[in-house]
Task: structure prediction
Amino acid sequence: MERMSGTATVTQQLLNADARLERINRLRFLRLLWILALVPLLSHRVGAHEVVEAATATAPAAAEASVAAPAAVPTAVTPAAADQEMWLVSSRRLPNPCGPRVPAVELDYAQWVDGCWLPSTAEAFRSGSRADCVTCVHVHGNRMTLHDARVGGLDLYRQLRACSESKFRLVVWTWPSDRIHGMARDVFTKMDRADGESYYLASFLTKLPAGGRVSLIGYSFGARTVVGGLHLLAGGTVRGTSLHAEKSDAVRPRVVLLAAALPMGAIVPNGSRSQALAQSESVASFYNAADPALKAFERFGEKSDLLGRHHLSEACLGGAGAVMLQYNATKTVGKSHDINDYLNSPPLMRAIRGHLLDPGQL
Result:
């Protein structure tokens, strides 16, 4: 009996030790999630110097309101030039498409006019397209309210205008990326939405007037959406969704990817987005090996190397790799996942602007 009692005691001690170890591991994981919460995970951090709109909505429902509501102008931005326009295109009120049965693409449009966002229509946007004007579409990353998207778009617009006389229309593409409760839930929900958003972007691009020049710039999850949209344009499938009759070989944009939250293997031959490069005139990927948010996402999200942190070898890319250029932004950006650290760097912004608007100046 004493031996049995001793054995039971040892067994109980082992069970208690296992339970303690499990609690410690759980606490370590929760601590890591808390640390990540302090990092602008896959998001654009808006600087304190930006002017905040007086009527910025705080509730999620208000944040996804129509883009038609006029917005005040940040004082640092001058009125739009006649040949350098800015538009806002929103999919915030649309559901996440998945599978062969997709919802109607009814996007909301607004135009930047005399310091305010004014409601507009798809017809007005398309009628303003010109062959000598570049349509540049910017897709933002995660945790962006409608206000954040407006302010971030204005900042990029200012940067593009700074040293370029090219005629362009900047399209600020905004999607439902407001922060939701729970770190893991937020990241995986937005990753799924970024993939689904590819369908709306690709459908939008097929309806642009033929003959016009197009460029795309995507940041973090926005880069994921851009690559998915290109893959769809080439006839591929994303999350069971394809363009079907809307497929267009005429759209071959120049592309800039910043801190792309996308597995490197997605764009190689036989990858899940393998047709994206062939659909592009050129692709410039800016990666940062020190990016803390992408590093964490590699470990706990995709569990594979991300395009936004690593250089992809030409051998892996195959023949389509001829269109791809890669820039190591690690020394310039450092331990940051902030788009401003890319846009506010003169050398990086010069390269970004060149790829989007002025390829002859590269």
Observations:
- The two ends are 85 Å apart (CA to CA).
- The beta strands are 84-90, 108-113, 116-120, 134-139, 168-174, 213-219, 254-258, 282-287, 324-328.
- The domain at 39-361 is CATH 3.40.50.1820 (Rossmann fold).
